[in-house]
Amino acid sequence: MPNEALVTSPFGVGAVITTLIAVSFWLDRRYRWFSFLGTAILVITGGAVLVNLGVIPPSIGQASEKLNPIYVFSNDYGIPIAIVLLLLTADLGSLRRLGRPALFAFLLGAGGTLIGSVAALWVTAEGIGSEAWKIAGQFAASYIGGGVNYAAVGEALGTSGTMFATGAAADNIMTNLWMVMTAVLPVLLIRWYPSIRNRDGSGGGTRGVGPRVIKDITVYDLAALAAVTFTVVGVSNFVIPYIDRVVGFAIPPVLGYTTLALLLALFTPVNRLRGGEELGNFILHFFFATMGAGTVLSTLVDKGPVVFLFLAILVFVHALVIFGFGRLFRIEIEMLAVASQACVGGPSTALALASSKGWASLVPAAVLLGVLGYAVGNYAGVAMGQGFRWLLTTG
Questions:
Q1: Crossing angle for the helix pair 132-145 and 147-157, nearest 10 degrees?
Q2: Domain ranges of the chain
Q3: Dihedral of the CA atoms 36, 39, 45, 48 (nearest 10)?
Q4: Angle at 293 between CA 350 and CA 252, to 5 degrees
Q5: CA distance linking residue 185 with residue 162, whole number of Å
Q6: For each of the chain's 395 residues, which pLDDT tens digit applies?
Q7: Number of C-beta neighbours around residue 32 at 10 A
């Protein structure tokens, strides 16, 4: 990990990241090959290159108060704001049409993760050592519901700090790589799968965010969207702790503001406001840059390579199951990619994928599948961890 980056001030890092975002959008609009990749991949890859060259500081490995404020904004504020903005203007009518295929795609992804974790543990248990069953349980949870589950199951299973940090570093790199793959695979595999491009002959909202024709957006639209968005997140953050006390367990904050945003989009005219999709997409690209800046190859030390091998096997099996059976059951390739990302990265990366690729009809499903992963991932991870422990001690 770079000890001292070339650019460290908040405005300096902000200048580098916004320049990277602007160049990525320009490349997406100017060159057809880059438009196939999409701006998300360009920004993630650019962030990874810049951090490993020592141009900008890493977005991992430090306490939150020591992180660059640009990264803090992206993780703590940008993601909630972007999710709410995109849900307020989303096509919620698509949920009725996507319900069963989306849920089935998610179940395929979760099943692939569980099978993959068994296969990965069988190959790497000796190399990882005595805590193999713990890290396997954590990854089973994380690759059903995202990184929040990794932390929760690690605490439940008593993973040591060293192994926890090693797994987190490998997980961060693999999550970023899989974000790129779920953006590329639909382009490579589309000829063999149904596609939202063919849905009702409408194209299903498959166009990227770059060459979009922007509607007339007024200052009133932006001010009203900002007011609604901050109110939704603020009310959610205020109410959730009280609900936690009543139910007896912690509810992920994303569940609160997602629910409020969906209710407003369904029962109020807030979705008539213009600019939410464009503004939400732009903010998401700060998150992409932060993801890229967390891909620090030097963090894979000690047991890092064998832990990364564990994840490579897990994700390979996960992909075989979700895309293999998805083709057999004729599920749209874009839906499979979003469901896979909901499992691996959670609601924020699933929404980021759908939004950055222009799959507008999949935005609500992306968030809801990610929230479902949050809900079931911890149970699956703890159960799998205890099962792995039994297998390793009796075998």
A1: 150
A2: 90-214+297-394
A3: -170
A4: 40
A5: 34
A6: 445 789 999 999 999 999 999 999 999 888 877 776 778 888 888 998 999 999 999 987 665 558 899 999 988 899 889 888 888 877 666 666 667 888 999 999 999 999 999 999 999 999 999 899 999 999 999 999 887 788 888 888 888 888 888 888 888 889 889 988 998 999 899 999 999 877 644 444 444 444 444 568 889 999 999 999 999 999 999 999 998 888 887 777 877 888 898 889 888 888 888 888 889 889 988 988 988 888 787 776 677 899 999 999 999 999 999 999 999 999 999 999 999 999 998 888 888 888 888 888 888 888 888 888 887 888 899 899 999 999 888 76
A7: 7
